[in-house]
User: Fold this.
Amino acid sequence: MTETTGNAGIAGATAPGGGKREYDVVVIGAGFAGLVAARELAHAGRSVLVLEARDRVGGRTWTDRRMGHDLELGGTWVHWVQPHTWAEMTRYGREIVRSPKAEEAYWLGAGGAPRTGDLDAFMAVIDEGQQLLVDDVREVMPRGVAPLDGGIAGLDGLSIQDRFDALGLDEEARAANESVWVGHVNAPLDQVGISSAYRWVAATGGHWQLMHEASATYRVVGGMSAWTAAIAADVPAEIRLGTTVTAVTQDASGCVVETADGERIRAARVVSTLPINAISGIRFTPELPEVWRRAAAETVASQGTKVWIKVRGEIPRFFAYGTQQHPISVLKSEYPGVDDDGTPHTILVGFGPDHTRIDVEDLAQVQAAVDAVRPGLEVVEVTAHDWMKDPLSGNTWMTHRPGQLTRDLSELQEPAGRVHFATTDNANLWGGFIDGAIESALREARRIAAAG
Ligand SMILES: Cc1cc2nc3c(=O)[nH]c(=O)nc-3n(C[C@H](O)[C@H](O)[C@H](O)COP(=O)(O)OP(=O)(O)OC[C@H]3O[C@@H](n4cnc5c(N)ncnc54)[C@H](O)[C@@H]3O)c2cc1C
Assistant:
């Protein structure tokens, strides 16, 4: 399918069918990174074409009407401590609304014993462990905008699990603390570098509570898709949907971008916004730098899932934490609602560290996963998008494996000749978040504009 959004293209030779075949820049992907890069370059007077494989813009953010609600299947929460995100929020007049504050908390203590309480009780259980995990953040990563400065290189081989193992927390506190971090990083803790914990807390000035709030509290009113549509409408260039790029070839005079439809488009430069886990979908000639090939072969650490679950009845607002062994390790109530026949329901959002552990088609399996963390609910419907299985993302929100940050980040930010890389995966501040996608787009647009 080929569909076009955005405004008219600028200069370029006309191809059969009315499209243009020569551009200053071809941007691959219309997620946050692609849209912002295209906008900046077009506003700077470059002729730009955006090629997007999906039939929508937004990439890993996607608001879809399901279960009678506008559900965010991908990225959701934003915060004013995310500077690039907040600038775009202001620019497009977006507002925030708080996700429901929990009245009840459920977690698992020593030996998996169920515990209940309120938000304050849970926060008291995790406070010491959350603080100790990154207590030395001021020395290890003194500036969130420069994640390689400070002492991180000496610690980057450690996983979050390694650090928890060394803290000496009692079993009660350890279980609760681990469950919080497995929710944050969307993967088993032995596979995620301690760098992710430092980065997130460094980005919030060393305050773990603020980091906690920033990562999962405020939604965008009207949904992510309305926001990315507003950005797309502000891109004075063609955004071609349903167009998968299969190859990029560069020589001394420029680049040729090939699409799955067999079209060949020339551009002086290309911006790839593909995530590390998806970049192997394009054949690059000459081949990608070693750092990209190695990172793509290793994959980043995140490997989890986000599921929306409808349960019967209007229930008190709650959050529940399981362990990293559970298919669903974090569960929260998001929306109360009423079916067409007047039956009340509640929509929950759940996260698990391994997408292969949960089959959203299997209601009994999801019921068992819910029972393990929040007993007493009746599951009636489940929906999700498996971002890990989706070849256009291959990932949810990026977190690094041990060692990847300090080994790869600087090199991943470098252009390869005429090919530039703008993706949240190579951002400095909020790498893995929407903010990082925007940061990376601004960086590469500035570089290209400066290159003349
Ligand atoms: C379940 C989930 C929850 C998340 N929660 C949050 C959150 O609460 N807050 C937050 O800040 N972030 C969150 N994130 C992360 C956030 O969504 C991403 O960091 C951000 O959207 C990435 O933007 P991007 O432009 O770098 O990449 P993407 O959005 O992945 O954009 C890349 C684009 O390239 C396209 N593409 C890929 N291959 C090709 C090809 N061969 N040809 C043409 N086009 C191609 C893709 O279709 C895509 O549109 C979440 C992500 C997920 C999946």
Observations:
- DSSP finds 13 helices and 21 strands in the chain.
- Residues 124-213 form a domain with the Guanine Nucleotide Dissociation Inhibitor; domain 1 fold (CATH 1.10.405).
- The pocket of flavin-adenine dinucleotide is lined by residues 28-34, 51-54, 59-61, 74-77, 244-245, 273-275, 278, 281-282, 306, 387, 392-393, 396-397, 423-424, 432-434, 437 (CB under 6 Å).
- The chain has a mean pLDDT of 94.
